[in-house]
Specification:
Largest sheet: none
Order of helices and strands: HHHHHHHHHHHHHHHHH
Oligomer: single chain
CATH topology of the largest domain: Hypothetical protein af1432
CATH class of the largest domain: Mainly Alpha
Number of strands: 0
Number of helices: 17
Length: about 300
């Protein structure tokens, strides 16, 4: 799969949004930018990469917390960045740090339409869901997880900076069946997925990760795409059907039921249980979270 060519071809269909100069996009910490650049060097050593991360004590703590969590389930505690990178691998470490770095830069961007804590928990839920779908599709699970975390990275910025426009967008959604992306295109001529993909390209994110963000509202149609249907792109698109604060996909639950017929060995109940188990075992406790399985049952999805 030539991800660079796929992305370039897609960009010919989606012109780059002209964002106002006063829009303040999130900033990636310098240590992560440096790590990302060095990680692309085939001759770089893990020791060199660890030294970059150890400069930023916050990132070091995040990395160690992650590798020692239930998600990784190591037998012996990992005590330094070099051990952590060795365990995860260079590319997964890069993806993890990019995700955590962007989260840190977005924490102050609550808007009247988004509560950041709930926003990030939804992204985490989708990331675990996408990873499970990628496993079933035999696609890249690390890319699926990271892309699902980052797919909506500009929504806190946009719903804050374009608050009045999103008032109109959300009102139109409430009286019709438009998805958020469709309503955004009516309002702006572009949507948050297109804007996120161009931003990620400017930041030199991996092209496959960027493609996932660009196509994450592609829906179930992506599952039958001759090239993308068995990739992380399709897994992320399925995960984006999970409802969120902005009701991005009004018929998300019913589409997830349809997905059971399209993805071999996909059982929505089972994946929901996996998602809920992750949150139960996570070192970071989430207050007032209603389990996904319970929400699916309340929506009468399993009737």
């Amino acid at each position: 799969m030539n991800w660079t060519e796929t992305l370039e071809n897609a960009f010919t269909e989606f012109p780059k949004p002209e964002l106002p100069t006063e829009i303040k996009l999130p900033m990636i910490p310098h240590a992560i930018t440096q790590f990302s650049q060095k990680a692309d060097d085939p001759d770089v050593s893990i020791k060199e990469l660890a030294q970059v991360i150890e400069i930023d004590s916050g990132l070091s703590c995040e990395l160690l917390k992650y590798v020692n969590s239930a998600a990784i389930a190591t037998r012996n505690p990992i005590t330094n960045a070099q051990q952590a990178i060795s365990l995860l691998g260079i590319r997964p470490s890069k993806l993890f740090l990019l995700t955590r770095g962007l989260r840190a830069s977005l924490t102050s961007r609550d808007s009247k339409h988004l509560n950041f804590s709930e926003f990030w928990n939804t992204n985490l839920e989708r990331a675990i869901f996408a990873k499970e779908i990628a496993r079933l599709l035999r696609a890249d699970r690390d890319i699926a997880y990271s892309a699902a975390m980052l797919q909506d990275l500009l929504l806190p910025v946009f719903t804050d900076s374009f608050a009045e426009q999103y008032d109109s967008i959300i009102e139109r959604q409430s009286i019709g069946s438009l998805s958020l992306a469709e309503a955004e295109r009516e309002e702006f001529g572009w949507d948050h997925a297109i804007a996120a993909a161009y931003t990620m390209k400017d930041w030199n994110f991996p092209d496959d990760l960027t493609c996932c963000a660009l196509f994450h509202h592609g829906g179930l149609e992506l599952l039958s795409h001759p090239e993308l249907g068995k990739t992380a792109v399709a897994a992320v698109a399925v995960s984006s059907l999970l409802p969120d604060q902005l009701n991005q996909t009004p018929e998300g639950y019913s589409k997830l039921v349809e997905a059971e017929k399209l993805i071999p060995r996909f059982y929505l109940r089972s994946v929901a249980e996996t998602v809920d188990q992750y949150f139960e075992e996570s070192a970071t406790k989430v207050e007032n979270r209603i389990p996904l399985l319970e929400r699916l049952q309340e929506a009468e999805v399993f009737i």
